[in-house]
Design goal:
Layout lengths: L1 E4 L16 H11 L1 E4 L1 H10 L20 E19 L2 E22 L2 E24 L2 E26 L6 E20 L6 E21 L4 E6 L3 E12 L3 E12 L7 E7 L1
Parallel strand pairs: 1-2
Antiparallel strand pairs: 3-4, 3-12, 4-5, 5-6, 6-7, 7-8, 8-9, 8-10, 9-12, 10-11
Length: 273
């Protein structure tokens, strides 16, 4: 049997006359065995075919429900003091440094295990070096005395967070953040004392887009400890430097990476309201 596609409304007619020869009979028989498929028949066949929904069958539970508010706070502080410290090529190191950073955040769950939020941060660092000597050999050394550096920066971050429970546990879970951060700040640097003093003043602007996975541990129904680390990111920084109030310099840098940055590990506490 042959299949023939024809336009809508087309008709097939087969006529046999009493005086038709054998050839005409064979052609008529061939036409009688022909099935005509119209566009309406094709559309009807397509409408009757049902596409079944694919289910991955991954077992999961709702870790953070829709409509919940999350408030978080992260604080870091470090300080060091040296008095005539020596280490390999470094000799007679005297000075002190400290670094402080505080970062509050707020997030709202727009769907189960999916939320959007904002994060703000302030960072301040200070370094005072009274004396230091770098000895590269018996006839090669470099001394740095009375070096002072002070910097403070501000950051604002918008992020999207997605939670994943570990099995059916509602205490342990993973989360993944997509962040977009804008930042800026000022810093100043001086070296020497009296007439030998030289200084520079810098302003900077930065843009960072990154992927930050983390681990969440609930201590109670309303509080949790979070640990996250930067993995994937794009960074852009523009810096303007004014030296001795005379010389102006500009510096721009771009970078992209896909690696675990151990210096970006952050610990914090979140409250689920």
């Amino acid at each position: 049997m042959a299949l023939t596609l024809c336009a809508a409304g087309a008709q097939s007619q087969t006529a046999l006359s009493p005086s038709a020869d054998l050839t005409g009979i064979q052609e008529s028989t061939h036409l009688a065995d022909t099935m005509h498929i119209t566009p309406d028949m094709v559309r009807q066949i397509q409408s009757e075919q049902k596409v079944e929904e694919f289910k991955r069958d991954i077992e999961s539970v709702v870790f953070v429900p829709k409509g919940q508010w999350i408030a978080g706070l992260s604080v870091s502080y470090s300080q060091s003091n040296q008095n005539k410290y020596q280490f390999f090529i470094l000799e007679n190191l005297s000075g002190d440094t400290y670094s402080f950073k505080i970062s509050p955040s707020v997030c709202y769950m727009v769907r189960d295990d999916m939320g959007v939020g904002l994060k703000f941060a302030y960072q301040r660092s200070l370094a005072k070096l009274e004396s230091a000597k770098f000895v590269m050999g018996s006839d090669m050394d470099y001394a740095a005395d009375y070096v002072f550096s002070l910097a403070h920066n501000y950051y604002a971050t918008a992020f999207f967070r997605n939670y994943f429970s570990i099995g059916r546990s509602k205490r342990f879970g993973f989360f993944n953040e997509i962040q977009c951060e804008l930042g800026g700040g000022q810093s100043k640097f001086t070296k020497g004392v009296g007439e030998d003093m030289s200084g520079a003043y810098e302003t900077n602007f930065s843009l960072d887009v990154g992927l930050v996975p983390g681990l969440c541990l609930f201590l109670s129904n309303y509080s949790a400890i979070e640990v996250n680390v930067g993995v994937l990111g794009f960074s852009y920084t523009a810096t303007k430097t004014l030296t001795d109030r005379i010389y102006v310099a500009h510096r721009k840098s771009k970078s992209a990476n896909f690696r675990i940055n151990l210096f970006s590990i952050t610990f914090g506490v979140s409250f689920y309201l």
